[in-house]
Amino acid sequence: MAGGKLTPRQKMINLMYLVFIAMLALNMSKEVLSAFGLMNEKFETANTASATNNAKLLATIDQKGSENAGQFGPAKNAADKIAAISKDFYEYVETLKADATFGVEIDKETGKLPYEAMDKGPHIDETWFKGDKYSSKGDEIIAKINKYVADMKVAAASEPTLATKLGPVVKDIESKFNTADVKDHEGVTKKYLSYNFEHFPAIASLAKLTAWQNDIKKAEFDSYNNLLGGAAIEAASMNNYTAMVVLEKSAYFQGEAVKGKVVLGRYDESTKPTSFQGPGKIENGQAVISMTAGSVGEQTINGKFTFVENGKTIPLPFEGKYVVVPRPNSANISADKMNVVYRGLPNPMTISFAGIGDNFVNASAPGLTKSGGNGKYNLNPQSGTEVKVTVSGKMTDGKTVTDMKVFRIKNIPAPAGAIGGQCGVIKGAKSRLQVSQVSAVLKDFLYDLNFQVTRFTFKAPGQPAIIVNGDRVNAQCASALARVTKGDQITISEIKTKIVGTDAKIVTQDAAPVVYEIQ
Fold first, then answer.
1. What distance in Å separates the CA atoms of residue 62 and residue 228, rounded to the nearest whole number?
2. Neighbours of 366 (CB within 10 A)
3. How far apart are CA 220 and CA 79, in angstroms?
4. What is the pLDDT of residues 328-362, one digit of tens each?
5. Beta-carbon neighbour count of residue 306 at 10 Å?
6. In terms of Cα–Cα distance, which of 331, 380, 376 is closest to 358?
7. Which helix (H) or strand (E) element contains residue 191?
8. Do 214 and 50 form a contact (C-beta atoms < 8 A)?
9. What's the distance, Cα to Cα, between the start and end of the chain in Å?
């Protein structure tokens, strides 16, 4: 019984049982009674120390459960239940110890119970038993013990992920608090309380009850240790990890070096930060990004997780990169023979490189200037018949790509003369011509240009040509009109114009003639 490698506590319990056996065989001596008293004192001291240690362990579990409910929440829930059950039963056993010390007064000199005088236990015999059965008090004690065992089993099974860790504790409790009938050394079957307490000295019963309390504290201690260890093992389990490919960015150009790493990461429900800063929200232990892609080119995502561990705030910053490319919502279709720009006009252009931000794109050509938005330019060609636009872009790996395109330069085509906004051959009365404005229009042109007539030649049949400065017939023209008859045609030709609404000094061609037939 005393052999093998036993803990000091187990050796103490074994010694107590040896004394019990000795009690049955020998007339109880004062030394034996004192030994029970000393044993009770040691259990009391151990229980006080256990209470302190258990309180610290429970506080640790509660703190971790509050800081990280995902990982340690189940452990905290089970520990709180076990703490309440243990406290209730421990305090109940404390009330039973009053039955063992009933009628016994503490020695004023030593401050201890008179162990040598506690050789009888009549109060327990009278209140816990009734004949060969239990009294109502005895039934109550058995019910309390069984309730403690049942409640601990329920608490241990309340968190499925940790139930197996508490299995050994439950098994130990069921063994130590088994209230089934017991056979004594003579083979006689006795009830549990009768076998342990009936006709025993009061000091022996007191030591036994204090040993119960020690068993309660040990079960509580083992439960907390197993819960902490089980939660830590569950959190560290490789089942909670996944292999992730982390590249330096999420888009690459053909031929560009792909760099990154493969890491083990976890994102289970138990991993819950106390706060998160970044473009998204926490779902199932991971930050789910939800944002609108920025401008074309390489962009950065950054933010910070914050965790609390052992009362301290632990920040975990993160940063990643991604590349924005233009949305492919239109095909790249071009008429190769129609690459034309017009001299003297700010020809609008959009210049970009797919996957490269505007701030890393450089375009150059004679007369090419930025016009505001990303990739927006104006090309105002000057002399010559062609202009070359060269574009370079700096990629995220530092390499530069270039491209170029040649445009033909054309002059603005000649407009057509118009009277009252009408071109070609117009019919009308003399009076209408006298009040109409001579203008010029350029139909079906890419640009909306406004022409102002500065001079034209007025020619009536059989009369000299009249040169008019401005855009309306003058008095001389009116005199010529007075001499024409119905069916005669007035020709407005050599129409000189200028473009208004632009600072460009554009030389325009003469507008095509317009004919006015008198009705």
1. 10
2. 13
3. 9
4. 554 555 666 678 888 888 888 888 877 677 888 89
5. 14
6. 376
7. none
8. yes
9. 141
